[in-house]
Design a protein that fits this description.
CATH topology of the largest domain: Metallo-beta-lactamase, Chain A
CATH architecture of the largest domain: 4-Layer Sandwich
Number of domains: 2
Order of helices and strands: EEEEEHEHEHHHHEEEEEHEHH
Structural class: alpha/beta
Bound molecules: zinc ion
Helix content: 25-40%
Radius of gyration: 19 Å
Distance between the termini: 47 Å
Strand content: 15-25%
CATH class of the largest domain: Alpha Beta
Oligomer: single chain
Length: 308
């Protein structure tokens, strides 16, 4: 493993997977929150996911120059969650691709998302997180609030400058990217969110998966659809990726797909049972253990709502 810490040092650790293909893992002490990818397609560079904050997004932009010799030619948002697209502002001079459905949702939710980013709202959330942290009885419990507090405090310092920048260019199905890597953007619908995009490099069998695949973290089902997510995992399996740029956590392997399937299946089983939720032992070492229960609650809620 060659880890290049020179390019990105506060928010990201970039690991070069192949010539020109780098996976940026969000550092626990940074404010990028989600992982990113910087890919030299040959004549053009793409950034896959633009991170949560302006500081971290600027670091990605600088890493693009350091790693590929040019600023990004365009960026991609894997889905609409803020930790994957709030950095768009830093790439707004270039096209920013996302699925058409993702763009539609960002435009629908824009006012709501902007409301989350006002100084008053951020101050209130910081106060609430501080109170909840103080109420914890263990060091471990308190430590779980360090990260969310750091993100909120950074967003608060950037609040006056932040302009929510929706992705500019939509695609459906598959979009072939320029260059000799045969790279494509793919979407199989919405599993983790209403619409999720992937970046696939068939020659090197590298997949950038956004939050459809995370490692050592609970997948998040708050705005997704569990049955579709499981179907998407089958389609990802058919690609036979060897290395997976996860949305959160370390670089993934084919086993990451198995773990995701196991997790989603466990959530589905727990949601179908009416008794209290107990997190299976194999997921207990991941941070934010209460996520399992929240995921089960989200799935139960969706089971009650007739589709339509
Ligand atoms: Zn997400």
């Amino acid at each position: 493993m060659s880890e290049s810490t020179a390019h990105g040092s506060t928010h990201y650790a970039f690991e070069t997977l192949e010539d020109g293909v780098s996976f940026g893992r969000a550092r626990p002490q940074g404010t990028g929150l989600s992982n990113t990818g910087v890919i030299d397609l040959g004549g053009a560079t793409v950034v896959f996911d633009t991170s949560l904050t302006l500081h971290s997004a600027r670091e990605i932009r600088a890493a693009s120059v350091a790693l590929t010799g040019r600023p990004p030619s365009f960026a991609v948002n894997s889905h609409r969650h803020l930790d994957h697209l709030l950095g768009n502002q830093v790439f707004a001079d270039r096209p920013i691709y996302a699925t058409r459905r993702t763009i539609e949702r960002v435009l629908q939710l824009r006012a709501e998302m902007e409301q989350e980013l006002t100084p008053a709202k951020l101050d209130a959330e910081i106060r609430e997180l501080e109170e909840r942290q103080r109420a914890q009885s263990t060091d471990g419990g308190r430590a779980e609030y360090d990260e969310p507090l750091r993100f909120h405090r950074m967003l608060r310092t950037e609040a006056a400058e932040i302009r929510l920048t929706p992705p500019s260019d939509g695609f459906d199905g598959e979009l072939r990217l320029p260059g000799d890597l045969d790279a494509s953007l793919l979407t199989y619908g919405g599993g983790h969110s209403e619409s999720d995009a992937l970046l696939w490099l068939p020659k090197s069998r590298i997949l950038f998966a956004g939050d459809l695949l995370v490692a050592d973290n609970h997948p998040n089902l708050a705005s997704g659809d569990l049955p579709t997510w499981l179907e998407i995992l089958d389609r990802i399996d058919e690609l036979h990726p060897e290395r997976i740029g996860t949305g959160h956590g370390p670089l993934g392997t084919p086993e990451t797909i198995e773990v995701a399937r196991d997790y989603l299946t466990a959530v589905r089983e727990a949601a179908r049972e009416s008794k209290d939720v107990e997190i299976p032992a194999r997921f207990r070492s991941w941070a934010m253990a209460e996520s399992f229960e929240q995921n089960v609650a989200s799935v139960r809620e969706r089971m009650k709502t007739p589709p339509g």
